[in-house]
From TrEMBL:
InterPro entries: Glyco_hydro/deAcase_b/a-brl (IPR011330), NODB_dom (IPR002509), Polysacc_deacetylase_ArnD (IPR050248). PANTHER family: GLYCOSYL TRANSFERASE-RELATED (PTHR10587), POLYSACCHARIDE DEACETYLASE PDAB-RELATED (PTHR10587:SF128). The keyword Transmembrane applies. Residues 57-253 form the NodB homology domain. Keywords: Membrane, Transmembrane, Transmembrane helix. The chain crosses the membrane at residues 12-29. Pfam families: Polysacc_deac_1 (PF01522). It comes from Alkalibacillus flavidus. This is Peptidoglycan/xylan/chitin deacetylase (PgdA/CDA1 family). It comes from the Bacteria.
Length: 253
């Protein structure tokens, strides 16, 4: 039996496939395209920041701190030894439990941001709950004699536009990162450092997790800092990196 092709039906299928391809390409571009805008001391960008567009060899080290005490001390010792100032995003409840370490971060003149007060994810919370959490975290940080609080990262480490809008409505700026230090409990120091070297560009914001199961982090940090210094890089706080500067933001899925 010879089957015949219904031309009208075939054209409908082709049109549907073309529309599906266009929809996918549009989504892919939107999800991965980086938008740029100007940032100065007098203007706050409308979205989360991941890096500066300046071409100078400058990068910012940032640390998320929500549990542990040993590794954070070793990290602070490395930064002090290398004369590097960084930006620490600290969880409010952690700061209440480890008030001496939180105060040490401030006393050593590092920049401080908020990693939420509780560790509940912001994106599935009502606006009122997010605002209350921000207010509690701000109070904890102010009690460390550090103010004003300017920067926030959500506890879930993810970008959600609505969360970003709520955070900015309270007068804070959402700061993300372009390079994440993939440190695992069994990571080799040289392997992680080599990966960081291949990933990092001038103007980048880097993220390290400062927690006790990642015991290699201080050694990775020390080797990375020394290598980049030999390459002529300077290490700045987030404020120093972005003020004044052109910055980029990327919706993080």
């Amino acid at each position: 039996m010879i089957k015949t092709i219904n031309w009208t039906s075939w054209k409908k299928w082709v049109a549907a496939l073309i529309m599906l391809a266009i929809t996918f390409m549009s989504w892919h571009y939107t999800a991965n395209h980086t938008l740029s805008f100007s940032h100065t001391r007098d203007t706050i960008p409308s979205s989360a920041i991941t890096n500066s567009q300046q071409e100078e060899k400058e990068i910012a080290l940032t640390f998320n701190v929500s549990w542990g005490d040993d590794v954070i001390i070793d990290i602070l010792n490395v930064l002090q030894e290398e004369k590097v100032q960084a930006t620490f995003f600290i969880n409010g409840e952690w700061a209440l439990r480890q008030d001496d370490l939180a105060q040490l971060i401030v006393d050593e003149q590092h920049e401080v941001g908020l990693l939420g007060h509780a560790l509940d994810q912001y994106h599935d919370q009502p606006d009122k709950t997010i605002i209350e959490d921000l207010e509690k975290g701000e109070m904890v940080i102010n009690n460390l004699d550090y103010e004003p609080l300017r920067f926030v990262r959500p506890p879930e480490h993810e970008y959600h536009q609505h969360v970003n809008d709520v955070v900015q409505s309270e007068g804070f700026q959402m700061i993300f990162w372009r390079v994440f230090a993939h440190v695992q409990a069994d990571s080799e120091v040289d392997t992680v450092v080599d990966q960081l070297h291949s990933d990092v560009d001038p103007g980048d914001i880097l993220l390290f997790f400062a927690q006790d199961n990642l015991t290699q982090t201080p050694d990775i940090l020390k080797q990375f800092i020394r290598d980049k210094k030999r390459e002529g890089y300077d290490f700045l706080t987030v404020t120093e990196l972005l003020s004044p500067a052109d910055v980029k933001w990327t919706p993080l899925n």
